[in-house]
Structures are given as C-alpha cells and as structure tokens.
Write a structure and sequence with these properties.
The complex is a heterodimer.
Chain A lengths: L5 H14 L22 H15 L6 E3 L2 H16 L2 H12 L10 E3 H19 L12 E5 L19 H8 L3 E2 L13 H4 L1 H17 L4 E4 L2 H9 L15 E3 H8 L17 H12 L1 H4 L2
Parallel strand pairs in A: 1-2, 3-4, 3-5, 5-6
Helix pairs in contact in A: 1-10, 2-3, 2-4, 3-4, 5-6, 8-9
Chain B lengths: L6 H5 L6 H14 L9 H15 L4 H9 L4 H6 L1 H9 L13 H13 L3
Helix pairs in contact in B: 3-4
The chains are: A alpha/beta, B mainly alpha.
C-alpha cells in the first residue's frame, strides 16, 4: 500500500477522514507474506502474520485491512493460535524470541465488510445525498463489483461465499447501477501475472470481457492486486484501448468520488492506466447530465 | 500454476484442503530442488520471502529486477513501458521500506525459520 497500491491507501485515508473515523496505522507493521511466503516456509508465513496481530493486541483496537490476502493470512494465523497445537506453540515461541506475546484477542476486519457492517449503508448514503458538489456523482454509471478470490474463499465469513453482495450494497448506496457479471469471484491470477504472464493476462482479460458483456462503465475491486492486474491486462492492449478502456477503481476510490472528494486526493492519477480521472468525468458528463446540473 | 484462489478447496465434496496441499507441494519442491530450469516460479516465491525476511516489507522493484534481470531479460525489457509509468506515478519505490524494530524482527524471523518442520 506504500508502493504499487499507493493510490488505494490515499483513497482509504481520504474517505475515512471524511467519514470521521480515525485510523491508526499499525506501528511497525510487516508484510503478511501473502501467497508467496507460505509456498516456501509455513511457520514463517504464520509468524509474519501473527506479528501484526501481536502488535495490534495491546491497543485493543480492531485490525482493519484493505487487502483480502492480508485478511486471509491474518485470519488463518488467528485461527491457528485460537485452536492451539504444535504450530501455535511454534508461532508463540518465534514471537517471544523478539519480545512479543499474543493472547489471541485481535479482531481482523476487511475494508469492504467494515464499510457495510460497521459504517453502514445508510450513513454512506447520507454523505452522498448531502453532496452540494455533484460533479463526481456516479448516478447513471454502471459499475461491476469484482470481489476476486480470497475475500470469499476459503472463509465465507465476510459475505456469502458464492454470491457476495457487500459491494453491490455499496454501489447502490452511491446511486450507481450494478453491472452484474458471472465471474465476480473468479481469480485475476494473482502472482501468476508476474510468473506466468500469458496465463495471468488471459485470466484477467476474461474477467474484463465478462464485465463488458454486462455493459460495465467501471470495475470496482476489493483487492489491490486484482486492481493492478486488471489494469496491467489493459495497458498497451489494443482490445482495451480508447473507448474500450475500463477504469478499475478501489472501493474507497469509488466511494470517495461519490462523496465529492477530488480524484487527485483519491490517488486516481497513480493508476497504471493514464487519465482515469478524466475518463470518469467524461463518462459522467455523457451519462448523467442531470446529476451534474447540466 | 496454482494461484491460491481456493476454488478447489471450496468445491471439494470431501472437504479436502487442496490449496493447503498445493502449498505443501510447493514447499517440498523448493526444499528438495524438484524444479526445472524453465519452471522457475519457485524463484519468485524464494525472492519474495528473502526480501520480506530482510526488510519486513516488500519492494516490488527489487523483486521484479532480481526475478527477471538475468533469467528473463527479454520479458523484463517488454515491461519497460509499465515500469516507466509506475516510476512516473510514484508507485515504484527504489528505496525499500523497512520495519523499524529490525533487531526484534530479525530474531523472530530466525526463530521461525529454525522451527520450520
């Protein structure tokens, strides 16, 4: 979130600030290991995740993550600690070597379900309806909710595992239309975009094509890697050039636009696809002249 | 080739944790050197792990350069336009971010590695 997904982080901070919710960045957080470390060392992977859980515990605050892979690894580590056993003992031993302890009381939340369950659709609607500045309204636009894999599998704690609805609720709260498509929980290919590019491109492109079949103007993503991959699959690709380009927004970038936060503050210029902010403004002018006051 | 999408785990009627088995197979192949020259995905996983062990955080530029510079130079060259775009938007960090409590972090990592099964 400090590197390739810097724009996503900027949008999270901007939206939460506007919602009046204080976020405290976990001091000295470390990489959770995602899907790569666990392919090399299982104990290390669980310990990396557990270190974050241990660092968060003293504050008593909930640990909120905008990334499904982090949510999954943190939740896995939490489950291992709570169930106890040999792996849990090893994890505690490793943490103790660095002077940390973890009793198992940290709660892990993911951004999308937090916005729906904790902040609430009604509160978000208020912010959107109270907007005097409607230049960024999303009314009349069709937005495709792309969940990706790790937010619904293997744990279906946050939402329905086969037909999740949290993002649809948010899209509708913002006054936009949901562009429903079949592949909304299909995998974008994750790390394969780097290691098996031909496979990665096909996996991401078929998702994009499916959203186009649903006549989507914009795709909103729950995962920073999915957002990156769906952009990479379009970059320099004539199939998605010009009018065929699909802006890919993170959940808070979408929310922020509807709440009247300028695109720049939402990190839109940081997208791999140039001119995303302008493309969306053009779409709004085309599709929702009434909302713009035109 | 497994992207850890967990589709198989969820679909399996016998509730076998197939994705976790895939991870175990990946770990085994890395440990026992059961890899071919062309199939070098294990290098990516190892490099990722090495960078996280050293800095506590990821540095994408370091990862991609080390993964591709000598082993996939043509593919790396083809990625130049993307790389330039990411530089210009400030999303490609040259200086790695690090955890501050390096001493404590290193001890935790070393212990975890020593406890690996």
């Amino acid at each position: 979130m400090k590197g390739t997904s810097r724009g996503y982080e900027e949008s999270v901070l901007a939206v939460f600030s506007k919602l009046g919710i204080t976020l405290e960045e976990l001091p000295d957080w470390n990489c959770c290991g995602s899907t790569s470390v666990i392919a090399v060392n299982k104990v290390l992977a669980m310990v990396l995740a557990a270190r974050n859980l241990a660092l968060a515990e003293p504050s008593g605050l909930q640990l909120l993550t905008p990334c499904p892979s982090c949510w999954l690894e943190l939740t896995k580590a939490n489950n291992v600690i709570k169930e106890g056993g040999k792996l849990a003992e090893k994890m505690k031993e490793a943490l103790a070597a660095g002077g940390l302890t973890y009793k198992g009381t940290t709660t892990v939340r993911h951004l999308v379900e937090f916005l729906v369950n904790e902040v609430g659709v009604e509160k978000i609607k208020q912010y959107v309806n109270n907007q005097k500045y409607v230049g960024n309204a999303l009314t009349g636009l069709r937005i495709a909710p792309y969940y990706g894999c790790q937010i619904v599998r293997p744990y279906a704690e946050l939402d329905d595992g086969y037909n999740p609805q949290n993002m649809e609720k948010l899209i509708e709260a913002l006054g936009a239309e949901v562009a429903q498509f079949e592949l909304k929980t299909a995998c974008c290919s994750g790390a394969l975009m780097a290691t098996r590019k031909n496979v990665g491109l096909e996996m991401s492109k078929q998702i994009l094509r499916n959203t186009k079949e649903a006549k989507a103007d914009i795709v909103v993503s729950a995962c920073p890697l999915c957002q990156l991959n769906l952009e990479l699959a379009q970059f320099g690709n004539s199939e998605f050039a010009g009018k065929n380009e699909l802006p890919i927004l993170s959940i808070t970038q979408m929310l922020g636009l509807a709440m009247g936060i300028p695109p720049r503050e939402l990190g839109l210029p940081r997208s791999i696809l140039p001119g995303v902010g302008k493309r969306i403004t053009d779409m709004q002018k085309q599709k929702a002249p009434a909302a713009i006051g035109g | 080739m497994c992207s850890s999408c967990y589709e198989c785990t969820v679909k399996c009627p016998a509730q076998i944790k197939i994705t976790e088995i895939m991870y175990a197979l990946k770990r085994k192949s890395v440990r026992e050197g059961l890899v071919t020259r062309d199939a070098d995905v294990h290098r990516f996983y190892k490099l990722f792990t090495d960078i996280v062990c050293k800095y506590g955080r990821m540095n994408e530029m370091m990862l991609i350069m080390r993964y591709m510079m000598f082993n996939h130079p043509v593919d790396l060259a083809l990625q130049m336009p993307v790389g330039m775009r990411m530089f210009s938007t400030g999303t490609l960090q040259i200086q790695p971010h690090k955890v501050r409590n390096q001493d404590s972090f290193n001890k935790i990592v070393q212990k975890a590695l020593s406890l690996e099964e």
